[in-house]
Each structure stands twice: as structure tokens, then as C-alpha cells.
TrEMBL record:
Residues 170-419 form the Ras-GEF domain. The lineage of its organism: Eukaryota, Metazoa, Chordata, Craniata, Vertebrata. It comes from the Eukaryota. It comes from Oncorhynchus mykiss (Rainbow trout). This is Ras-GEF domain-containing protein. InterPro entries: Ras-like_GEF, Ras_G-nucl-exch_fac_CS, Ras_GEF_dom_sf, RASGEF_cat_dom, RASGEF_cat_dom_sf. Gene3D superfamilies: Ras guanine-nucleotide exchange factors catalytic domain. Residues 417-438 are annotated as: Disordered.
Amino acid sequence: MPQTPLLTGMLVSRGYNNKNLYQSPNQTKEEGYGNAGLCYRDNALVSGSLEALIHHLVPSMDYYPDMRIRKLAPRILQLLQEWTETFPYDYRDERMMRSLKELTQRMASGDELYRKVVHQMIQVLIRKLTTLSQYEEALVKVNATATDRLTVLKAKPQAIQRDMLSVCNDPFTVAQQLTHIELERLSYIGPEEFIQAFEKKDPLDNDKSCFIDHKKTSNLEAYVEWFNRLSFMVATEICMPVKKKKQRARVMEFFIDVARECFNIGNFNSLMAIISGMNMSPVSRLKKTWSKVKTDKFDILELQMDPSGNFYNYRTAFRGATQRSRTANSTREKIVIPFFSLLIKDIYFLNEGCSNRMQNGHVNFEKFWEMAKRVSEFMVWKKVECPFEKDRKILQYLLTAPVFSEDTLCLASYDSEGPENNMEKDRWKSLRYVPSPG
């Protein structure tokens, strides 16, 4: 994939431009505390030393950040409420939970109102963490069922009784059920998971940092695995050895229609997964089958998701979907599911392309503002409730139907349409010794 241009359109709402992230703060207004200052541009904080930030936030005998604050407890409690609401997975770490309880107990010890607020906050947090655990257990069961079905398929390759079309032959309904899966899995990805995935040790930080040594969730990785599963499932459905060319062509056209409906819904992740599956070499090499397919719609979809120009066409379509979402009156129009791998890549290159600290040791706030902007947009998209009615039978099939490995797909493809050149013949000969599909 072409590398994402760094920092495109950065922080437009704050009046920043791309070069500001690399710019020395010499031309900014500096609020000094000895040699450690805070730097502002257009009245917005852009960098500062850690010492100055602490000084700015913590009151002392002769310094008060806000003279209107008579008590710090309400503000601290508000901060904790927002933290536990926005970043609940941080508190899967027992040390974090212990620190939270110790702090809130001190705050609530002398005030009945604080006690009630603290109790409610802790209960909400525990419910969220319990729900996450239940979701993870459900994923384990789903994956186990898929593995069991693949084991049966390995033992009896001809025992394939069902395919997608036998479960549902309506592309719109399948696209709706795919959107259910996408939105559910998105909803469990916490914003802190992006930070954990891309955090890197800053050479200016000491080794005394705590609470960052263990990753407590894997919802981000599970979502990427779902994309891969859908791609391989599409390829498996097409390459199943029991199908004839006419049947395979029909399956291809069906998934093209599903992909188009995903595009119309705003489900770009499923759209790209389907296109990726159809572009796998075991599928793309089936020239005789493709000759029976009306490919006009597929060509249009491929053009929309073309990676050239750093996915220019996709990004244009995606901007249109997000604008529609912002002004939408119905939940149906609010759905925006990004091509997740590209979103991750954008955030990765933003993180790698800009240092956490500037050359003078200041914390690079502009970088973190942009990171926050990207993740905040994602949080809006993942909160949309799916408006479509669930079909348990279709969902179960999409989540647990056995999928072929890459080698087995190749073998099935060669069985469907024989190898055409020496390279394919050599590959086919080596795959013939694979004992069974899997």
C-alpha cells in the first residue's frame, strides 16, 4: 500500500497547519517558569515541559490555576468520572483500580453527596468491565465453533451441506447482518487501545513510568481478524470444490451485490473485505468463471476502493459518508464504518512521523491534539446503534462457517480450473499432497 501522507489537514479547527508539528516553538508566546515554559500559538497550548504542565495544573501556597475554584474535590471527581467513562479498560489493571478506589474513598469520606457519586461511578465502571468480559467469552465460543466446523470439514470434505446462498440469497439482508457484526465489534474497541497499540518509549522519559506495561484488551486485534475471516469466507464460498462454474459465477455476482449494498449503507470495512476476498489469487485466476460474470458493478466498486493516490477515491467517498452522518435525521444514515486497516495505518504513521517531545524537551501537544481528533471521530462512529433487524441464522453462518486456508483455497481453485502455466503446475503438484481441506 502507498504510504499515507502525514498530517493531512491537521487541526484545521484549531488553525494549525502541517509544518507546525515539526516547527520550533521559537515564534510562539512562552509563559515561563524558570527554564521550563508553556508555549502557546493563537491562545492554544502547543507544547510545554512536563514540569511546567504540572506547575500549571497543581496549586501551591502562592499559585492557584483558577481562583474561582474553592474546592478541588468536585473537579477531581469530574475528571475521574470522565476518565472511567471514556477509558474504562484502563481499570482492568488491578493497580489502576486500586488507586481509583483509594482516591475516591478519601474524597468521599466526609461528604454524603460525594459518596453517592463515587459509588455510582464505580458501579457503572464495573458493569462496563463485566460486559467486556462477557463479550470476550462470547468471542471465544464463536471462534471455537468455527474451529469445530473446520475440523469436520477436514475429516469429510464432501460434507458441505450449506453455503451462503442456501442460508440467504438476498444481498441487502446479508449486508445488513454484516453491518451488525461490524458495529458490535467496533463498539467494544476502547480509545485507549489505539494508544496501547502504538505507544513507543520516549528517550526523554525515565524508567519509572507505571501502569503502561501490560495490554489488557485485544478488541482491536479481534476486529482485524474479523476482516481477514470475511475475506477468506468470500473466497471459500467461491472456490468450494462442489460447485460448478455457473454456480461459482452466481456466488461471485451475489457477493458483488452484497459489497455494493455495504457501500450504500456506509459499511466500508465489509466492502473492502469482500473485494479483498474476490481479489485473492485463487479467485482472480478463475478466468472461465469470471467470463460468466457481469463485472460492471465490481469494476465500479474496485475503482472506489483503489489504493492509488493514497486511496483518494475511498477517502472522497468516506468524507461524503461522514458529512451525511453529521446531518442525518435517521440512524440508518448515521452509519459510518471506516476501512479499519487504513484508519490504523493513518494513526500509525501520524504517531511514527511526529515525536512525543520537541527538541527542547517540551511535550508536543499538537501531535496529541491530532491523535485525539482521529480517535474522537472513531468514537462517534462506533456509538451508532445498528437499525437493522437481526437474523440469528445469517449471523451464525457469517461468524462460524468454516473457511479454507490459503493453501486449501489454491488447491480448490486448481481443481475447479486446472493450472495454466508451469508455475501453477508446480504449485498444484505440491498442494496435492495436502491431506484434506483446512
